[in-house]
Write a structure and sequence with these properties.
By secondary structure, the protein is an alpha+beta fold. The chain has two domains: 204 residues, Ribosomal Protein S5, domain 2, CATH 3.30.230; 170 residues, GHMP kinase, C-terminal domain (Alpha-Beta Plaits, 2-Layer Sandwich), CATH 3.30.70.890. A six-stranded mixed β-sheet has the order 5-4-6-3-1-13, with helices on both faces. α11 crosses α12. The protein starts with a helix and ends in a 7-residue tail after the last strand. It binds alpha-D-galactopyranose. The site of alpha-D-galactopyranose has 11 residues, from α6.
Amino acid sequence: MSDRLRAGFAAAYGREPEGVWHAPGRVNLIGEHTDYNDGLVLPFALPLGVSAAAARRDDGVIEVRSHQAGEPVTAPVDGGTVVSEGWPPERAWAAYPVGVARVLREHGAGGASLLIDSDLPQGAGLASSAALECATALALCDLHNVEIDRPALARLAQRAENEQVGMPCGLMDQSASLLCEDGRALMLDCRSGLSAQVPFDPAASGLTLLVVDTRASHALTGGEYGRRRAECEEAAALLGVAALRDVKDLAGTLGTLRDPVLRRRVQHVVTENHRVEATVGLLRAGAVPDLGAMLNASHLSLRDQFEVSWPEADTAVDAALRAGARGGRMVGGGFGGSVIVLAPAAKAGRVRDAIAAAYAKRGWTAPEFLDAVPSGGAARVTAPWRR
Ligand code: GLA
């Protein structure tokens, strides 16, 4: 990708880029809708992601172009927020890099010219937005000699998405993109910001972790994600805790909430945090095959208690289990996107066929499959050509 970007950058801007930075997408093994409840998550990075060729500018302007988007977008780095400027839909993709530039400006970064390329499917729930933010953030910090440690940079990228794009996401995706390591899942405590690298190698246990892009595209800037977050915050306020992370006695607590919807939301978040802890325990004990039960419990909870699953995800998980998978669940924010399936390697072909057949029976667009290999986090991928 770097050569194509370097050549494309030279053609677009009439100069060489100063480097190429890459940031991966992620799959969340478990811990969904827990991050903005100050809870626990366990994502790992994918080998796919977003790359940015970039060169510094000192005129206070950021210009972004992309192999995947139409018109170039130019904006001042000291503008207000993209949300308040009411950008038209064709500029919406650029709100992420411009938003990051505006947040990082407060920390000493400035403008840049960027050319973006991505091999990560968009709308597949694999955190392509966070990858775009993180590739931009690393490039801007390097180009302007700004030193920010990675956990802090993840929070700034999250802030850019919250304030500039208007998507009230949690901390998971940006942290995964910046902090993950090869062959490991990242256990992140979203309250303290502390994390641990947990070895995760399904192949060593004769297993395959498949990512199934259900081809039902999600758009989290739509209202449902924000509504779930608001419900969780309302429940926490009613229960007198800082965040749902702090609910200790689930059975006793549920009895004090009158609203059945809020009860379901609390039940999901509290049990999902427990499942993250249990999953880390299984990984550390080398019991990878037992993860299947955790994935299944997470999926049912997301479907029935948190109500963020969608028909293609339920059908894919169901078909995979019938074909011999050990477990599966929806990943990401929900309402579209991807599913992960843990299957014995010898049965992976049969599982794919069963999911494809279930789709064909319903007349749905065929799903796409990726092998999920836990990979490294964001990095500068080329040495500087000049500087
Ligand atoms: C999206 C958000 C994350 C997280 C997940 C759900 O990916 O960006 O912060 O809330 O949904 O776990």
